[in-house]
Specification:
The protein contains two helices and eleven strands; from the N terminus they run ββββαβββββαββ. By secondary structure, it is mostly beta strands. Bound molecules: ligand LR5KHM72. The ligand Nc1ncnc2c1[nH]c(=O)n2[C@H]1C[C@H](O)[C@@H](COP(=O)(O)OP(=O)(O)OP(=O)(O)O)O1 binds next to β1, β4 and β7. This is Oxidized purine nucleoside triphosphate hydrolase.
Length: 166
């Protein structure tokens, strides 16, 4: 199973509420869709270290004090395919810049483009951006690659105590 992370940096957007830093993925799994910065764990790395590194590499932001917000398992044709550790943080330094992997954009939390994201994201990301914790299982069918498979079922549990994945 592939271990991955997602990080959702947040900032105060004034009268319009919070903004979240999203990327438009430029290549690889989920190309052309919006998501948080993130990716696969490297050897010897903790999930939290991976989320910090991927955010730095993809969008040039330094994030600290990450809060574990979700633990998601994506199954493909009945087999566990990817586990994703989801973080959020308000400790963000720097200005986002594009990379070969990602085009970053601060987006009001109320305007997250769920129609341009993975089909499951609208089920769990709103709660994560509001401060909840979630454990979820999402079933896809139709073979590799995962981003061309059909999303068929899910199971969610909210307000589950999660470690910080450090
Ligand atoms: N269903 C769903 N919803 C939301 N996010 C995801 C999924 N499935 C996923 O795999 N993901 C996330 C998990 C990862 O953060 C990214 C996939 O990115 P990455 O692992 O970097 O994929 P590639 O770009 O193909 O890998 P590299 O070879 O470039 O490391 O999506």
């Amino acid at each position: 199973m592939i271990e991955t992370t997602l990080c959702f940096p947040l900032r105060d957007g004034g009268d319009d509420g919070d903004d979240v830093l999203l990327i438009e993925k430029r290549r690889g799994l989920g190309e052309g869709w919006y998501n948080g910065p993130g990716g696969k764990l490297e050897s010897g790395e903790t999930p939290q270290e991976c989320a910090v590194r991927e955010t730095r590499e993809e969008v040039g932001l330094e994030v600290r004090d990450l809060e574990k917000a979700g633990e998601l398992t994506f199954l493909l044709d009945g087999e566990e395919h990817t586990r994703c550790h989801v973080y959020r943080t308000r400790s963000v330094t720097g200005e986002p810049s594009a990379s070969a992997e990602a085009d970053p954009e601060w987006v009001p939390v109320d305007d997250v483009p769920y129609d341009r994201m993975w089909d499951d994201d609208h089920l769990w990301l709103p709660g994560v951006l509001e401060g909840a914790t979630v454990v979820g299982e999402f079933r896809f069918e139709g073979g590799e690659p995962l981003d061309e498979a059909e999303f068929v079922a899910h199971d969610l549990e909210w307000d589950v105590p999660l470690g910080n994945g450090s």
